[in-house]
Amino acid sequence: MATVEQLLAVLGRRGDAQASELATWLQVSRPTVTRLLAAAGDQLCRMGKGPATRYARTRPLPSLGTRLSLHRIDEAGAVHPDGELHLLAGGRHWLERVKGESELFEEQPPFAADMSPQGYAGRTFSLRYPELALSQRVADWTEDDCLVALALRGEDCVGDLILGDESLDRYLATPDTHSTPDDYPRLARASGQGHPGSSVGGEHPKFATRVKDRHVIVKFAGNDEGAAVSRWKDLLVTEHLALEAIRDAGHAAAPTRWLDAEGYRFLEVERFDRVGLRGRRGLLSLGAIDNAYLGVRGTWTQATLKLHEARFVSEEDARQSRWLDVFGQLIGNTDRHPGNLAFFTEGPKRFRLAPAYDMLPMMFAPVGTNLVEREYTPQPPNATTLDVWPDAARRALAYWERLTQEPALSAHFRERCAACAESLRAFIQTRRL
């Protein structure tokens, strides 16, 4: 007589199966399989409905069990049940949605990858929450460690989803506090010591706060001396002006403003995944979408072309992504990784390009306390970018010229920008586009 242990062993080897397949492999009748499936309880996950239903072995997380509730916060701040995330053996996940199509992910679901602590803010996560007993280095975490963090302390993550009832309770209990720019020096000092903030990633020093009804990420450069600090202060201004140039070109970009206080320079970047006091919008990075559905792992241009071919994004969004890719290259943004382009979620496998952010000439970024003077090399158009290259190049040239006239930038940095403007001007003339 077959046992539950034998059933689980078969699924451990096979991954998932229909009841008829299990009956064949175990050499038992369908009623026997039905009895075994019922007896297995939470050790199994039922995926789908009707004759096509498949079964998979689950994996438990300490104190969390084998499934986690998923909640969505709408733009008015109301909470809606979105589904359950079932944890499967082998690191897989079954997302059983309340509405719409449920999905099987071979690895971490895309929203979890973006929501997980990372970058500068992630460095202090374990210090802030020692009760979770997670490694102090986020880079050492397993995917299950990320799920523990999200399910227990994930009330303020990127996008509109909250995983786990405990994180939802923390969201509901969060007071409506806010800051003013006068608080920024204090928040900057606290950010490196475990100041609570969003899970928004990126390596540059930053903190998350709310100014009246605006949720902002505030980047900052320190109040000490040195060439590297001066360069980062320059770069914060260039980011503000780059996003301004993108908007002037007719593309959406995150609103920003910069200010100086107590020797610091701050750059406010408005969050477009937040609405009003408590509302949220669904958001996924290009990297999370690509990893979950395509596996292109290429440039913004290459990945969004495949997204359009798969009908995940519109033709216009793919074109705007190409424009941003070209503009970024021509202004020396060497940090155009897939986490720096994002899309609003409009349903399973349907996405809309979000405003641009993190756009600046990172070729000038210091390495530690050292300035590294890298060569600026504009790239010509290719068959895929030919339609957007002329306009992007014209806008990039205007941007470099704007930087040469910006009084908030250091004299040495303006000289470097003038050299880049001259190089791009000559490059455009040789292309005659």
UniProtKB/TrEMBL annotation:
Q: Which stretches of sequence are listed as region Disordered?
A: 175-204
InterPro entries (UniProt xref) = HipA-like_C, HipA_Ser/Thr_kinase
Under the heading Pfam families, the entry gives: HipA_C
* Source organism per UniProt: Myxococcus fulvus
Q: Does the keyword Transferase apply?
A: yes
Similarity annotation = Belongs to the HipA Ser/Thr kinase family.
Q: What is this protein called?
A: HipA-like N-terminal domain-containing protein
Domain (HipA-like C-terminal) spans 198-376
Task: Name the NCBIfam families for this protein.
Answer: PRK09775.1 (NF007297)
* Recorded superkingdom: Bacteria
Q: Where are the transmembrane segments?
A: none
* Sorted UniProt keywords: Kinase, Transferase
